[in-house]
């Protein structure tokens, strides 16, 4: 399928263009989600895409599925209700870094703990973009933001470690530059019967890039190209991982899935209902 | 015959005071009389003061709480100390033997070995609540609620494996009044 | 359920029985006194009827989950009390603007903050109307008995489904925890309303295009309609817009669909109001004390009656106005420092005097307190 066919098939073309700034990494990441869905041949009617609030959360509006743009931080809680009510649906949640790990951090760890079959994709651009460049839980220490005018003293989250520690059964990271890897991770996440967490490192030249003298979008992509290394490489040659950003598939360890476990309880009463 | 009985049952949390009140209310509605059951409790599930109330009324019950009970049951000293002043002066006080009371009162007093009977006759203090139900039933009288209805209510409300023991406790409670 | 089935049951349990009778098949909640029994009984009963229960990580997640569940096609409910109700406010607004039917039960306890968890109060009356930000429709029903809790939980679901709006069942600890007789209705006699579904093709479907009754048809996610839902102001296609005209029309419509259909959801009860010169206005647990007080005060030869709103929101303006034109004096008795009385005053002040009877110590207002207030303590 060529690019324009995919666009016509999966995007609400009449709703484009999008709101994202020139050079933003979110469009590329959104496209990896679309391509993963296409690759797996999922029926569009069975796909639900849920988001919270922020730049990333505008993505579902452009995507031709059942789409739900919720309140800030709460996407996973809405998605949990959808998945519980109709477990046949493929539920995908797209969140930003602040959305998923600050205001929505509690929902993230509990959705992961339950291992409910939701594929969660975080577009992490290390900043609150929608509100104009405030520091988020993934802004590196010493970086600048409008609310960290003298340098950020917070210590950032490693979102993948957070999700894995909380119980996610599939975890991986890629970047807007490493789009094919991102797509592959989303495909595997969608195939995992359980809570999948994929972090997509995005770029925000407008706020994070400008505040921190990271250059333009090209420079920021080059940074990902030069500074990311796949976990598989590091496992063979640990020295190659020094001072680098790890990408790749970090964890894949199936466990009982939440809605299936609940269905076991419901089925216990099946005979009773027949009477 | 009565029009309205207001009963306050009190003791400590975990004694099954609320269940006793539920059984009485349950039996009353089964008998076709209006009943309402309420309770108040502190934050703790065990220990602390526990209070449950039942209103049995041939007419409609509006205000659901008991202000001046006709019958007051106290299984502990602290519940007696707390609630005795609220008892109707023509009412009935039922207390466990362990409670020190002021005998100089207008209301009728039954000082009964409820906790001791539970332990000695039935081997567990857990059934003190149903012994109390037996005593209350014997006092309220068969003309209000029939014995069959009481037995049915106890059977439905206590945990299934404890039905026989609780029915025995009910009989022991009746005996405390009727001898 | 046969016609003569009855049971001694708690108000909170009656709420679940009503919800199940109305067709609730999804419950998400977080434990909080004095509403917890509603979660416990839902957990027990939902899987039996092929329904779903989940205990979420907090109340924000609970209401989010029921909105999701409703969107995926199940009638959904959550229950909470003061602190949890505060946490739910943002998403109550979401359900209002996105027009997702759901029922939120608030078994009121003493507040503010942690307040008195095991004691009754009616301090959330204004919050039920104005708790979430922005202009929005509010529907809240207040039962005063176990029987009414059952019946008005069913009505709460029906209003939610019919008007595509969140409905609040505003209980109080008195009603939630008391046990009295519940007469189950024959299931064939219970009116059950379900949301309108689209019959058009997915290509023609406009998720937020209202019919003449102001209410758009609602497809469930997964039924092939693939539409967009957002908490932003949106057009009839469901997509966000900054267009001032479209935004204004939307907020007006979601408000009008309730306000202009107020007669369809105006529930109230009158007691001895025929010749009344004084009216007590009371609702929920307090209305029971008020009814006893009316009987006692009448014995003194004073012509007094009770007007009992069951629909707290939208405000029963027409009925209160008519009461005020009939009587010389209104007493509003409520377990707060004067909330519903503000609305009564607004409507009644031109026709009669409005007095307040308030109590916030965690105890139900007693009949005697109402009698004393009305008769000036003359005995």
Automatic annotation (TrEMBL), chain A:
Q: Which InterPro entries match?
A: 2-oxoacid:Fd_oxidoreductase (IPR051457), THDP-binding (IPR029061), TPP_enzyme_TPP-bd (IPR011766)
In terms of domain of life, where is this protein from?
A: Bacteria
Quote the Gene3D superfamilies the UniProt record gives: 3.40.50.970
Q: Locate the Thiamine pyrophosphate enzyme TPP-binding domain: which residues?
A: 53-199
Q: Show the CDD domains listed in the entry.
A: TPP_OGFOR
One MF term from GO for this chain?
thiamine pyrophosphate binding
GO terms for biological process, alphabetical: cellular respiration
Write out the entry's keywords from A to Z: Oxidoreductase
Q: Extract the PANTHER family matched here.
A: 2-OXOGLUTARATE OXIDOREDUCTASE SUBUNIT KORB-RELATED, 2-OXOGLUTARATE SYNTHASE SUBUNIT KORB
Record protein name field: 2-oxoacid:ferredoxin oxidoreductase subunit beta
Native species: Sedimentibacter hydroxybenzoicus DSM 7310
TrEMBL record, chain B:
Is the keyword Oxidoreductase in the record? Answer: yes
Which GO molecular function entries does the Swiss-Prot or TrEMBL record give? Answer: oxidoreductase activity, acting on the aldehyde or oxo group of donors
Q: Does the keyword DNA-binding apply?
A: no
Query: What is an example of a Pfam family matching this protein?
Result: POR
InterPro entries the UniProt entry points to: 2-oxoglutarate_synth_KorC, Pyrv/ketoisovalerate_OxRed_cat, Pyrv_flavodox_OxRed_cen
Listed A to Z, the keywords are:
Oxidoreductase
Q: Which residues form the Pyruvate/ketoisovalerate oxidoreductase catalytic domain?
A: 13-174
Name assigned to this protein? 2-oxoacid:acceptor oxidoreductase family protein
Q: What is the lineage of its organism?
A: Bacteria, Bacillati, Bacillota, Tissierellia, Sedimentibacter
Automatic annotation (TrEMBL), chain C:
Please list which residues make up the signal peptide.
none
What are the entry keywords?
Answer: Oxidoreductase
Domain Pyruvate flavodoxin/ferredoxin oxidoreductase pyrimidine binding residues, every copy:
17-243
Pinpoint the Pyruvate:ferredoxin oxidoreductase core domain residues.
Answer: 276-370
Cite the GO molecular-function annotations of the record: oxidoreductase activity
Keyword Membrane in record: no
Is Zinc-finger there in the keyword field?
no
Record's Pfam families? Answer: PFOR_II (PF17147), POR_N (PF01855)
**Top-level taxonomic group:** Bacteria
Output this protein's name.
2-oxoacid:acceptor oxidoreductase subunit alpha
Report the source organism: Sedimentibacter hydroxybenzoicus DSM 7310
